[in-house]
Every structure is written in C-alpha cells, then in structure tokens.
Amino acid sequence: MHQISLGQSDLKVTPICLGTMTFGEQVSQATSHAILDRALERGVNFIDTAEMYAVPTRAETFGATETYIGNWFAANPGVRERVVLASKVAGPSRATPWVREGAGMTAADIVASCEASLRRLRTDVIDLYQIHWPERHVPAFGQMYYQPEKESSQTPILEQLQALARLVREGKVRYIGLSNETPYGVHEFVRLAEQLGLPRVVSVQNPYSLLNRSWENAMDETCHRLGVSLLAYSPLGYGLLSGKYDHSGTTGVGAPATARLTMFESMRKQRWGRRESWETSKLYNQLARDNGLTPTQMALAFCYTKWQVASTILGVTTVEQLDEDIDVWGTTLSAELLGEIDAIRKQYRDPAQ
Known about the structure:
The structure is a single chain. This protein has helices at residues 29-41, 64-75, 107-121, 157-169, 183-196, 219-226, 260-263, 265-268, 275-290, 295-305, 319-327, 335-348, and strands at residues 4-5, 12-13, 16-19, 46-48, 84-89, 126-131, 173-179, 203-207, 229-233, 309-315. It is an alpha/beta fold. It has one domain: TIM Barrel. The strands form 2 sheets. An 8-stranded parallel β-barrel has the order 3-4-5-6-7-8-9-10, surrounded by 5 helices. Strands 1-2 form a two-stranded antiparallel ribbon. β8 (203-207), α6 and β9 form a beta-alpha-beta unit. α3 (107-121) packs parallel to α4 (157-169) and α9 packs antiparallel against α12. It is globular, with a radius of gyration of 19 Å. InterPro entries: AKR_Detox_Biosynth, NAD(P)_OxRdtase_dom_sf, NADP_OxRdtase_dom. Pfam families: Aldo_ket_red. This is Aldo/keto reductase. It comes from Diaphorobacter ruginosibacter.
C-alpha cells in the first residue's frame, strides 16, 4: 500500500488507518494484538488512539486502549519504529469527568495528558497528537447549530497551541492535529502558528461517510487551501453502512448481538441512532447491492477514492473485519453510481451530522 504525506509534514502514512477505540471494551487484549499484527502484515502503518478510549467511554476503561497498544509495543521490539502513532487529548471534562477536573483544557492539562499517554503507550514520542474536540463550544457530536449563548471557553486557542508547541519542543510529540473541528478552528490554529512561529496543524480528524458529508460544506475548501489533511472517521457510520442493521429497528433488535449499536444503548441515543440515519443507510445499502457491491464495499470505496480524504480510519472488532475492509482498497465507483449516491444525499442530506 502506498504512503502519503500528512499536511505539510514529513509523516508518511498509509491511506488506511487502524482505529482502536474498541480495544478494551468490545475487544480483548489478545484480539487487539492480533488485529494490530494483521494490520501491520497488510501494510497499514498508521494507528490512531486516544486517552479517553475505550468507547463507549467509562471510568473503568479509561486509558485501556493505549495500555493495550503499549503492551503490544513492549511484546514486539522494533514494531514501534514501523508505525506512525496518533493519539488525542480529550476536550473539556463535561463529557469525560474522570479524565480531569474543571471545565476547560489548560496548558497544564494538555501536557499532563500527553505524558500519561506516553506512559500507557510505552513510547518516548507520539507522532501525531490531536485535540480530540474543541475546548470552545462548537456544533459537534450530533449538534446541528452553533449557539453563542452556550459559549463557556476558558482556555484560548493560543494557550492550547503553546502547550502543544512545548510538547513538540521537548520531543514528546512530532506533529499536532485537531479533531471534530470547524473552519474557524482550523483557520485560527493555522493563523496563530504562522504569525508566532508555532507548530502548524497537519490534519483534522472529523466524521466523513455517506451519512455525514458535512465536511464538503466548507471544511474541504478550508483544509485544501491551508494544506491540512482529513483523517476520516466512522466511514461505515457506526456499522449502519455495513448492512448489519438493515433488518432491525432503531432499538437494535434483530441486529447481531455483538454489534455496537445493539450492545450499547448510549450510542443509540447519539447521531447514529436517529431514525433518519437508520432509514437513509438502508437506501445506500440497497443501492450498493443493486450495483453488485456489498454495503461495506460501496461505503468504504466512497471514502477511499474521495480527493478530500487523506486516510480513512477503520474501527474493527475482529481480524476478519479488518481483512474485509482492507480488501476494498482499489475498488472504484462508476460515475453513474456516484451520481445515484449524490441523488440520495440531495434528498436526505446528512442525517448523522
């Protein structure tokens, strides 16, 4: 598999990235290590994790994913040098009170989180360190609109960027990135970096799939012009675009017992659990079948071949799922099929935004 450069960095990554948020909740350490082994064997050199993982996030599993990866590095000398490792510092504690106290994400918080991640990952450096979600109020995780009255920011972007710069200067982080960001956030981080000689963000990790193409409504132009790469997460819409929920209702009844939206009620209350998301996914899944593809093949091929996407993050629970997803690489979609995909979007927009 070929490699591409992330943003304006010298990080060379594969256009497929192994996401690990299931490690420590749905996936045991032994299976996690088997998936990591297989990803490396298939040529994937890019691994993404976060301090708050596993998901769904709980105090009992906080940090488990990074610990599993760190144990894999320790058990396989020489492997760390073969992979590009990405992790994230969690946003404000309103969503993860066990990560830290306080409403903000201070410079001290960022540094402490990074150092804790380094210990769990059993490494001296994180190649790409990302802010998991903005410290300020933004319409993310299913929120549709920006609401100024909800602003509660306590840590300016400059302070966050200076903390990340310190980590780069100390050799604990090579490059920095953002996640769940908006055009304003990307522009502000880049503007400050360029004006003050601070590290420039190289990537943004945002949702992108057939059920959520909101990236194409300004973020694509922003990041293209600024030279910032998209790491697309949830390309299968939490499994809705795999077809495994096509014969179940929004309660998950009728879907596989081990499926994420079946197991975790909290996830069904999020954007993926909306009736509109379930119903629209069925339209895409049937379109795939009508064109001789599996739903997974069409959904992943869509992400793999879009100019906006630098690397697509795959979340799996088995080695077999990983192989199935990687095998889609090289699949192309005809202009006619892409037109039919656009027709569905024109009518139903982005139900999982």
